[in-house]
Amino acid sequence: MLQRQAAPLREQAVIELRSQIVSGALAPGIRLKEKDLGDLLGVSRTVVREALRQLESERLVRLQPGSGPIVAELTRDEARQLYEVRAALEGAAARLSARNATDAQIDRLREALEAVAGRASSDLVPMLELKNRFYDALIAASGNAIIGEQLDGVQARISQLRAVTLSHPNREGTMLHELTAVIDAIASRDADEAYRLSVAHVMAASAIALDHLQQEGNA
Q: Coiled coil where (predicted)?
């Protein structure tokens, strides 16, 4: 049940439902009943309905004809396309960061990655929040806010799969190594290398996510 806080109840409901979707507590394909969610969160059905509309705009929820809102499911092909777009966006941000970032912005990138390293990957939702802060720092360093806006939309749609990739055995250490290399290339002002390493980082995560979806499809 939600605690009464300064933030509007709708916003709190969005945060809680998003967290449950990302963590898998609300699994892809599950029907989202307003009354049940209202009872769970201790809010009105109106608040739940508004929260679901927000999550629908983020593509985490979709309307199923005849059933109402359900947790959105991604096909393997949709996931592949989203990771390809994510790779292009992050690669572009890394390339621009190598050209445009100040020393202070590069320091903030390292600090953001250190915060990621200090959080156990088993704490999936907090880990994703810290990784998002790292990407916020990357976008700031790139000097291109439009890339950030586009990346936010992609990240929201694959948030469940990001939880899958982060919890994959040995992924945490590999991820930190990959992102450290990206920052080092940015600090060296090697735009092409920063781009290459950033794309490789995303495609490594993509391989894990697509393998997961393949196994689910064969189950």
A: none
Of 29-38, 69-78, 166-175, 183-192, the range with the lowest mean pLDDT is: 166-175
Helix (H, G, I), strand (E, B) or coil at 62: strand
Query: What does residue 61 show for φ and ψ, rounded to 5 degrees?
Result: -125, 145
Q: Which residue has the tokens 């000097």?
A: 143
Contact 13, 39 (CB under 8 A): no
Distance CA 162, CA 156 (A): 9
| β-strand partners of 63 | 69
Q: How many residues does the chain have?
A: 219
Name the pLDDT band for 80 (thresholds 50, 70, 90). Answer: very high
CATH fold label, 9-71: Arc Repressor Mutant, subunit A (1.10.10)
Do 63 and 69 touch, CB atoms closer than 8 A? yes
pLDDT of 133 over the 50 cut:
yes
- DSSP letter at 31 equals B
Span 42-70, mean pLDDT?
Answer: 91
d(CA 87, CA 66): 36
Give strand pairing partners of 68: 64
Give the pLDDT band of residue 121 (cuts 50, 70, 90).
low
Asked: is 76-218 a CATH 1.20.120.530 domain? The reply is yes
Enclosing H/E stretch for 32: none
